[in-house]
# Entry
Amino acid sequence: MNEPHGVTQPPRHGTATDRHRPGPTRDGGAADPGGGAVRYGPPAPEPGLPVLGDLADALAGAARLAHGEPPGGGPVLREAACGYWTRRGLRSVPDQVVAAPGPQPLLSAVLAAHGGDVLMPRPCPAWWTPQARLLGRPAYHVPTPAESGGVPDPYALLETVRRVRAEGGEPRLLLLSVADDPTATVPPPELVREACEAAVAEGLHIVSDETWRDTLHRPHETVLVSPAEMCPGDVTVLADLTGALLPSSWPVAVARFPVGAAAVRDRVLDLLTALGGFVAEPLAVAAARALDEPPSIAARISGAAALHATLATAVHTVVTAAGALARPPRAGRHLYADLGPLRPGLARRGVSDSMDLEEYLSARLGAPAPGGHRFGDELGALRVRLATAYLLGPSPETRALSLTAPDPLALPHTADALSRLTAALAELG
# Structure
């Protein structure tokens, strides 16, 4: 699935995979004839779990704080981020760190501070491309290897850089992810190194989105290496804390800039200040608590990762048993499935592309099933991201029960959701 198949050259203000229909897009985005929809989802896969009491207490205790955090976050939040990264092998100091109210404004500021054209893997997180479009930056999608997503094929990357420059473009940034949304894979360290070395050799700065690094399904068996460990002077690390540490409704993201990048960091701070991109002080207190990873939070992180690993494995089993394709999930709360082998059955139901597939499966499952076109993938490919949170049931009680059950797959609400998926795929045979 998603093997390198030559490098497609998108228009200068969009991607070749975009398809526009008149008026507003189906997901509420406004149609942009120059580059497609700017405002579109889907959001990142939800954890679907109740808010941890430790975090709720931290937020409630800070609710009366009336002063906002300074641009880029206060010293307590930035110190906590340094401790978090240092425990993961990236020694950091507060002057390298910037915090923002969510990953979107933070990435926009980083892109604006660097300038130039942006390269990213195909497929990639749904929220990356809109940031480039909002800035009027060309975004080029580069194929990923067959075995994993998140990091572009090194040879395809070099070819894309060559073609962009031949067209008069200025490729300056490469976005990648070592624990990937949407593919739920973790690229092998050797591939990460090859792609990073190719990018640096061509003068590209790397932005490594490591939002999902704490959601590894088998953390003792999976080797995850940050590009900042391999090319420390050429990598900015970005992490959305709602990936594993905070509830999805508490937007806080942090970035770690390389040593010697003070000018870029200052420019990012200027941009966040102009945008009013300040972290609310109560959220900053809760985020610092989460980044410190006391035992209760560490246990929730590992427990949630194990739960979603079990659910994702079950979904993978159902998908492949139906004859569809999917890489085994290694991280996150989702699975990326290719229903190409089921195309005849889908065609009988009027499904011919990923946009149709999204509508069809979302209706059949009663849960969002965003198509591959959302992630920069080819519209004609029948690919879809299946999240696991909908298997946790409809209420806080069922979700909490799923987290503590010896066998979450045996719970009635989970078994019922898996049965709906099984039936929806079986009828396509």
